[in-house]
Task: inverse folding
């Protein structure tokens, strides 16, 4: 072998070995700092944030402010920067909100009064204050407007009050008319669809017949009774005024026995059945209150080194349902678990930087407010970004990672060794692979993609703060343990948290984040299909 060739081969081998050593060093460093995410620290944080003293951390209330202060102090203790300019407390991004609630609303039909929560219910954000008398109403089947089946075809409902049935029609073989299969369509799984199409057709008020009204008023009581919160000058402008009514109330408006007959006719013929109901005196006395309140996202910023202008955003929402009477909805799993994971991940990165091994890219740790009220904090951030939104390389969102759902056996270590991964491949296949690789190298969790299915009726992809980033073409991963019997109940308490699994899931987020902020190239958006 010639001398020059030998020298070239030696140099190539040298740099290859250096690269391998550097990669091993980076991996070892990741593991070193990942170990700082401990069960003990997670439990210490959660016992504070999910305590009765914090009153369920409801948006705009005392408990939320206590939690915000706790989180900001933790960020400050880690020497994270507060990136909010022009504010005395640079860790807080203030969110102007409007709160509305009910003041004994009633609906009277031909002199018979129907009471709120007993015969009908609604959400403050999806209706205006009303005081009027209606003398005709349009029964409009299921309120669907689809190419395969439409209740609106040939109908002029502009300015009208309409009544529709919840769900969607099935044929005599039990197949749904819209999907043509045994699977429900989006008209059953996405409650917004009927409200949006009603508004688009000029409907003033929509009454939705709910056969399970009593059950649903109990299940959704915190949202119905607790009032609604929306961004100031925001809210559900695309919805018609909406109320869910009992079958008894529907039958007080419709001719006796006609509702069931008309619905059966729709199933039998596959065509809509509409009817104008006249000579009914319907008094809508819907009284509400409105007031301005404030909340805040809590932001901690860790500046990167040579690629500091590119930013990874890690989020969790720290709000919950608050108090209802003497009941405190502590929200230990939802989303106290994600919040304490965020605090520990921030600490791991801060310790890495302190040790001279900080990230190349910057990291924004954001505890988000208003998620339970409609993803308000994340919506406010993406429309009023503190840091350039176009510089955000990805969003890792942590919402409920401390429990085992009823799809898994919490008494079996192997069964509960899982986490649901949602959205990882929706915009970037590279992000998906990075998360998979991090798991194989470090955490060995069962990555369950059940809820990542675009046809999943739960629509979890649309139901947490990551979605507002995804809407802006920013790749996301949503880490989730699934729902359980204590979901949105006052029994979601610290004693139910499985801290070993919480720590393991938090570490997966950290290791994925570590790769994202330290690799040479920014991950690419390479999936462009419509959702």
Result:
């Amino acid at each position: 072998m010639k001398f020059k060739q030998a020298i070239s081969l030696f140099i190539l081998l040298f740099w290859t070995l250096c690269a391998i050593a550097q990669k091993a060093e980076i991996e070892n460093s990741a593991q070193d700092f990942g170990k700082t995410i401990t069960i003990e620290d997670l439990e210490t944080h959660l016992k504070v944030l999910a305590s009765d003293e914090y009153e369920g951390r409801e948006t705009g209330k005392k408990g939320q402010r206590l939690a915000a202060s706790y989180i900001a102090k933790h960020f400050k203790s880690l020497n994270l920067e507060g990136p909010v300019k022009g504010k005395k407390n640079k860790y807080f991004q203030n969110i102007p909100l409007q709160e509305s609630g009910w003041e004994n609303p009633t609906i009277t039909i031909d002199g018979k009064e129907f009471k709120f929560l007993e015969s009908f219910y609604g959400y403050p954000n999806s209706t205006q204050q009303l005081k009027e008398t209606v003398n005709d109403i349009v029964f409009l089947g299921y309120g669907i407007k689809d190419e395969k089946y439409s209740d609106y075809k040939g109908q002029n409902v502009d300015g009208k009050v309409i009544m529709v049935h919840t769900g969607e029609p099935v044929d005599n073989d039990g197949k749904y008319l819209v999907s043509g299969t045994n699977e429900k369509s989006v008209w059953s799984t996405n409650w917004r669809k009927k409200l949006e199409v009603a508004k688009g057709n000029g409907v003033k008020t929509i009454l939705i017949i709910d056969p399970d009204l009593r059950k649903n008023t109990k299940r959704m009581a915190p949202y119905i009774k607790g009032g609604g919160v929306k961004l100031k000058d925001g809210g559900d402008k695309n919805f018609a005024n909406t109320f869910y009514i009992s079958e008894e109330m529907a039958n007080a408006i419709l001719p006796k026995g006609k509702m069931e007959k008309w619905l059966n006719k729709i199933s039998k013929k596959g065509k809509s059945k509409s009817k104008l109901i006249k000579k009914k005196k319907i008094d809508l006395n819907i009284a509400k209150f409105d007031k301005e309140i404030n909340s805040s996202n809590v932001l901690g910023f860790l500046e990167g080194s040579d690629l500091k202008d590119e930013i990874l955003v890690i989020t969790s929402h720290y709000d919950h349902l608050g108090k209802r009477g003497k009941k405190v909805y502590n929200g230990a799993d939802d989303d106290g678990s994600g919040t304490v994971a965020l605090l520990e991940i921030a600490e791991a990165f801060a310790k890495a930087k302190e040790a001279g091994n900080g990230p190349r890219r910057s990291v924004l740790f954001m505890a988000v407010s208003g998620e339970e009220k409609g993803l308000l904090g994340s919506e406010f951030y993406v429309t009023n970004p503190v840091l350039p939104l176009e510089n955000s390389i990805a969003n890792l969102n942590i919402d409920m990672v401390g429990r085992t759902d009823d799809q898994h056996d919490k008494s079996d270590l192997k069964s509960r060794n899982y986490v649901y991964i949602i959205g990882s491949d929706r915009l970037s296949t590279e992000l998906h692979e990075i998360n998979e690789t991090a798991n194989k190298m470090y955490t060995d969790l069962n990555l369950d993609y059940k809820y990542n299915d675009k046809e999943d009726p739960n629509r979890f992809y649309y139901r947490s703060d990551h979605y507002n980033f995804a809407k802006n073409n920013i790749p996301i991963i949503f880490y989730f343990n699934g729902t359980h019997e204590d979901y949105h109940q006052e029994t979601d308490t610290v004693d139910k948290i499985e801290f070993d699994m919480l720590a393991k899931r938090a570490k997966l987020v950290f290791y994925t984040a570590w790769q994202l902020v330290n690799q040479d190239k920014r991950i690419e958006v390479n999936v462009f299909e419509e959702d």
